[in-house]
């Protein structure tokens, strides 16, 4: 009898486990012990922070152990293609942003199809950008920037966080819409690009709203406009480019979760509802605001509409601005 006791215990555990599986909610049956949010860039970047902001509460809301895994390389293509090829079971999600479309819009051949290979799941937040100039310039408004640049074509330059970055696209789009000639100077990051404008080694730069706080108090820099279609509740004192010299201009980035194509709609809806519940929590909302994000709590359909509209906008910006990878 002594030799059969372990086998009996194992049978009891198996039966108990089966009973739990039958009584568990749908999500627990779909999920595994660990689910992953893939960040296709190195640790600590802007793409990772929104995922970190919701991670703890999302674990609690979905009853899952969500981990954040960085898979950098090839400008985000390696991590993005990893998710595109993952099982469509809701256990592997991509932490994506507007730059998801940039590679395709620039004519390069990515390892994935930015629309066909994914299904939008949940919008975590949207970010706008702020236009700043060196205060030594006789420029206090967007209109004055445009006038100055038209009077001295090719004299003004603008810094960015690198070719095809959002800070590059936003400024190239501005120059195109205003029909002005400014020289692009790419840097390795936003902070370096902005610091050189403050130091007089650059004339203008566009930075995310999350990074503008330190510059609002810097007398070497003048903040003259925000890229959003309407004034931001986070920075209500800053006029939009739209209202201050560049009618019709608007440029914002979204941050959100994408799943592999063919992920069941019930799973997508469940994650969307959980994310929306999490971003409404006061502490999480405040974390996202500190990142410069406004969170509209979009439905799956609402995020899909934003996703597809952004593809059209990014494609148009790249085409109109003549941006290439070279």
What does this protein structure show overall?
With 326 residues, the chain is of the alpha/beta class. It contains 12 helices and 10 strands. The protein folds into 2 domains: 34-126 and 253-321, 3-Layer(aba) Sandwich (D-Maltodextrin-Binding Protein, domain 2), CATH 3.40.190.150; 128-226, Periplasmic binding protein-like II (D-Maltodextrin-Binding Protein, domain 2). Strands 1, 2, 3, 4, 5, 6, 7, 8, 9 and 10 form a 10-stranded mixed β-sheet that branches. α3 crosses α10. The radius of gyration is 23 Å and the shape is globular. The chain starts with a helix and ends in a 5-residue tail after the last helix. Residues 1-32 have low confidence and may be disordered.
What's this, in brief?
41% of the residues lie in helices and 20% in strands. The chain has 12 helices and 10 strands.
Helix content: 40-55%
The main pleated sheet reads as: 10 strands, mixed
CA radius of gyration: 23 Å
The CATH class of the largest domain turns out to be Alpha Beta
**N-end to C-end Cα span:** 76 Å
H-E string? HHEHEHEHEHEHEHEHEEHHEH
Task: List the domain count as a whole number.
Answer: 2
SS element count, helices: 12
Global mean pLDDT: 87
- The CATH topology of the largest domain, please? D-Maltodextrin-Binding Protein, domain 2
Low-confidence stretches: 1-32
The 3D shape can be described as globular
């Amino acid at each position: 009898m002594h030799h059969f006791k372990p086998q009996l215990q194992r049978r009891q555990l198996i039966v108990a486990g089966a009973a739990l599986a039958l009584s568990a909610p749908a999500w627990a049956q779909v999920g595994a012990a660990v689910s992953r949010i893939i960040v296709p860039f190195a640790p600590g970047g802007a793409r990772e922070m929104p995922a970190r902001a919701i991670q703890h509460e999302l674990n609690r809301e979905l009853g899952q152990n969500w981990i954040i895994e960085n898979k950098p390389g090839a400008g985000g293509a390696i991590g993005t293609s990893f998710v595109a090829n993952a099982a469509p079971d809701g256990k592997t999600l991509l932490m994506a942003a507007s730059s998801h479309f940039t590679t395709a819009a620039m004519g390069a051949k990515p390892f994935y199809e930015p629309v066909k290979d994914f299904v939008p799941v949940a919008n975590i937040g949207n970010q706008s950008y702020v236009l700043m100039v060196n205060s030594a310039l006789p420029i206090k408004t967007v209109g004055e920037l445009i006038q100055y640049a038209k009077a001295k074509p090719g004299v003004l330059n603008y810094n960015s966080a690198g070719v095809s970055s959002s800070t590059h696209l936003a400024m190239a789009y501005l120059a195109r819409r205003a029909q002005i000639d400014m020289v692009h100077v790419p840097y390795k990051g936003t902070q370096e690009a902005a610091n050189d404008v403050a130091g007089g080694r650059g004339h203008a730069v566009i930075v995310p709203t999350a990074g503008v706080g330190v510059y609002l108090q810097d007398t070497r820099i003048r903040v003259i406009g925000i890229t959003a279609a309407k004034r931001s509740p986070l920075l209500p004192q800053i006029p939009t480019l739209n209202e201050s010299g560049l009618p019709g201009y608007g440029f914002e980035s979204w941050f959100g979760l994408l799943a592999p194509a063919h992920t069941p709609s019930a799973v997508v809806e469940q994650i969307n509802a959980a994310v929306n519940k999490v971003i409404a929590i006061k502490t999480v909302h405040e974390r996202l605001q500190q990142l410069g994000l406004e969170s509209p709590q979009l439905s799956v359909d609402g995020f899909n509409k934003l996703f597809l509209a952004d593809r059209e906008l990014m494609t148009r910006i790249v085409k109109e601005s003549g941006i290439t990878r070279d």
